[in-house]
């Protein structure tokens, strides 16, 4: 019998229940995937708590990697035994699942299953942030919050490879050292100093063209104050809570600023978009420009503890649930 983590009622980490489930044969356009590794992301917390409501009961998790066990009718792009990975399709906290064949990508030989599970959602998020939301170029100075997190470490490396100067916020000396080792030129320990004032000092008053903010409520106002006129705040998460209602006139007062609230699903909505995004990510990893650090692993059945550690900010880099 196949097991999965299911949520029957939104709540704390204890809402993650280890259940037996049935996974049938794949239908038209589907594959049956046996997971070997599953990624842990903060969006999983939003789903668990009900911030992003899901029909109950449901299996959380937005990314995974594994081996194709069976293919359904009309699937010609994959075969049994192929190693594949995906992000953006809820239901990965399971030993096996059904998934549409056009929502997975084949894994290159040089990328392990754990690397793939750790990087698909976070790495493809970074790709749309720095290639499409605001195309980072050599000479730019940018700010990334949570620079020692999974997205943060990838973004620091990738932006550094593009020739940008990277400023990042972190919560401790240990995380500052980790961010610095991954391409962050100016880690700011926000528990010790005002990050907005440090940004002004580092840029000699010029401020920034873009801030990448996954924290939300606690950083929103100061993030705006880090931007130069016509700058962009890319708000792609809300780890500290939802941003309260904002009078949009403040954007004019602070210099004709812009705000965007992007999500990965929009940028990989088609099979072609998914393929292009994943291939860009695989290229920078295989080329050594971005290293994927799996800093924590937990057995899938121990997802409750993984969530507790993630919310307590005890984790760094990427975390994988092993199957």
TrEMBL record:
InterPro entries: ADH-like_C, ADH-like_N, ER, GroES-like_sf, NAD(P)-bd_dom_sf, QOR-like. The keyword Transferase does not apply. Keywords: NADP, Oxidoreductase. SMART domains: PKS_ER. CDD domains: QOR2. GO terms for molecular function: mRNA 3'-UTR AU-rich region binding; NADPH binding; quinone reductase (NADPH) activity. Signal peptide: none annotated. One of its GO terms (cellular component) is cytosol. This is Quinone oxidoreductase.
């Amino acid at each position: 019998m196949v097991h999965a983590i299911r949520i029957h009622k939104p709540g704390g980490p204890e809402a993650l229940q280890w259940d037996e489930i049935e996974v049938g044969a794949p239908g038209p356009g589907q594959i049956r995937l046996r997971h070997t590794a599953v990624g842990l992301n903060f969006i999983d917390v939003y789903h668990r708590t009900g911030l992003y409501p899901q029909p109950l009961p449901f299996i959380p998790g937005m990314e995974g990697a594994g081996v194709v066990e069976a293919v359904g009718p009309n699937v010609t792009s994959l075969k049994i035994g192929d190693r594949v990975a995906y992000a953006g399709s809820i239901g990965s906290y399971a030993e096996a699942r059904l998934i549409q064949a056009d929502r997975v990508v084949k894994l290159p030989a040089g990328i392990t299953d754990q690397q793939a599970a750790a990087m698909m959602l976070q790495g493809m998020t970074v790709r749309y942030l720095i290639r499409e939301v605001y195309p980072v170029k050599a000479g730019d100075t940018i700010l990334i919050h949570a620079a020692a997190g999974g997205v943060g470490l990838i973004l620091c490396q990738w932006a550094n490879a593009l020739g940008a100067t990277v400023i990042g916020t972190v919560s401790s000396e240990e995380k500052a050292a980790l961010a610095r080792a991954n391409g962050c030129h100016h880690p700011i320990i926000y528990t010790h100093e005002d990050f907005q004032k440090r940004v002004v000092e580092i840029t000699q008053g010029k401020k920034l063209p873009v801030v990448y903010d996954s924290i939300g409520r606690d950083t929103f106002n100061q993030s705006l104050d880090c931007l130069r006129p016509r700058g962009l705040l890319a708000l792609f998460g809300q780890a500290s809570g939802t941003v309260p209602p904002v009078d949009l006139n403040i954007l004019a007062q602070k210099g004709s600023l812009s705000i965007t609230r992007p999500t990965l699903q929009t940028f990989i909505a088609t099979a072609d978009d998914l393929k292009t995004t994943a291939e860009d990510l695989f290229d920078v990893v295989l080329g050594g420009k971005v290293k994927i650090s799996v800093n924590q692993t937990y057995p899938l059945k121990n997802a409750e503890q993984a969530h507790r550690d993630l919310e307590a900010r005890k984790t760094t880099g990427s975390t994988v649930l092993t199957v």
